Amino acid sequence: MNIVMTQADWLGLFQHFASLSLLGVGGAITTAPDMHRYLVTQQHWLDDAQFTSSIALAQAAPGPNVLFVALMGWNVGLNAGGGLAAGPTAWGLALLGVLVAMGGIMLPSTVLTYTATRWAHRNRELRAVRAFKTGMAPIVIALLIATGWLLTAAHDQPARDWRLWALTAVTTAVVWRTKVHLLWLIGAGALLGALGWL
Amino acid sequence: MSSLPSDPGAAMDAAPSQPRSKTDLFLSFTVLALQGFGGVLAVVQRELVDKKRWMTREQFVEDWAVAQIMPGPNVVNLSMMIGGRYFGLAGALAALSGMLAIPTVVVLLLAALYGGVADTPVAQGALRGMGAVAAGLVTATGLKLIGALGRNAMGLPVCIVLAALTFVAIALLHWPLLWVLLGVGGTGCGWAYVKLGAQAADHGGHGTGGRA
Q1: What are the sequence ranges of the domains in chain B?
Q2: What's the confidence (pLDDT) of residue B163?
Q3: In chain B, what residues touch A112 (CB-CB under 8 Å)?
Q4: A179 located within any domain
Q5: What pTM does this model have?
Q6: Which of A23, A61, A189 sits opposite B71 (nearest CB)?
Q7: Can you give the pLDDT at residue B210?
Q8: Mutation test of the interface with chain A: which of B13, B63, B97, B137, choosing the one with the most A Cβ atoms within 10 A?
């Protein structure tokens, strides 16, 4: 798709991501519905397929999942420049899109987190600070296990998905109890899947 | 691994090792991020606690609690906290750019290549397999960290009840994260505040650092 991005549009893109930055407790992905509303439904800067593949690709790729925001910026820039095949101008706009989108989503949360955590570290002997960390510890550990559960439960057809569940269970046991390098496990999962055994 | 410490105060304050420089931070977090398929946390725990020993398991849980509560990507928050602790703002920025710079380039390259193979059964199958492994990685990370609760001031039984409530609310009932953090988390923090106060009163004057 082709779009036109004015300076005001770029600023709007930055502001939108910046406004979502502080709402992303539990990860920027929790604000994805609002990004969809703005980028796809309201502004028509991305189509549905670009939006969805930005999220899917960033989750499959190495690195923090927040990089899906970089891909959204990249795609907005490419759309403004006439597509990947249009050459260096389009690539430049795509890179601008990456900087604007990532700058917006990262800047406010980063400043707040850095300031707050430095304060908490300087005051780590305060009873309130210690109570916070002590009280939250069991909750955040449970959240990790719940995340694993939710990822598994997303595949909910036993007849087809039991092999996936088995792979998850084996991986859990192996990582819990051994020191096997994690990349071997990722590679094994990719291989099993590519061979069609899952 | 999960034996009770004889000197809890010392174990809390000193990690066995630490990053050597800002370059070390940048490179370490770049390498960590590039190994993180389907989430970086499992790699971070494995590398920083088990291998590099920049932090103990207990420190990791405490920092992770803060990183998770603050807005922004959890693992990026954690990297900034570690960087900032050793080298101030410059260290935080080094860790942050390690987490984001090279991985962004990689994800963009993948995006450029993606169009050609996205719909093939092989690529779809590989993604399915990697997703199942990623679910196992995060689960195992949680299970390993349970051991750190043995030294929690609230006591293990209370910790297990709070953890079970959280799991049920999020995984089975699908309640919004914010409610669970405020409800169950708030209860935990309040209870911890009371227990820490009682502990300080018990220990009064001994100055043991009160972590038992």
Answers
A1: 1-112, 152-212
A2: 96
A3: 70-72
A4: yes
A5: 0.83
A6: A23
A7: 42
A8: B137
Structural domain that includes position A147: 134-194
- ipTM of the predicted structure? 0.85
Contacts of B180 in chain A (CB under 8 A): 139
**In this complex, which of A26, A57, A64 lies closest to B99 when CB atoms are compared?**
A64
Whether A126 is in a domain gets the answer: no
What is the pLDDT, as a whole number, of residue B8?
41
Residues A148 and A190 in one domain: yes
Answer whether residue A21 is part of any domain. Answer: yes
Residue identified by tokens 């970086």 is: B40
CB A17 within 8 A of CB A69: yes
Residue type, position B47, single letter: E
**B119: which 2 tokens?**
């719909």
Q: Which two tokens stand for residue A197?
A: 């055994």
Q: Average of pLDDT values for A178-188?
A: 90
Residues 6+ apart with CB under 8 A from B27: B98
Q: Measured between beta carbons, which residues in chain A are less than 8 angstroms from residue B190?
A: 131, 135
C-beta separation of B77 from A115 below 8 A: no
Number of folded domains in chain A? 2
Is residue A91 domain-shared with residue A163, that is, in the same domain?
no
A147 and A89 co-located in one domain: no
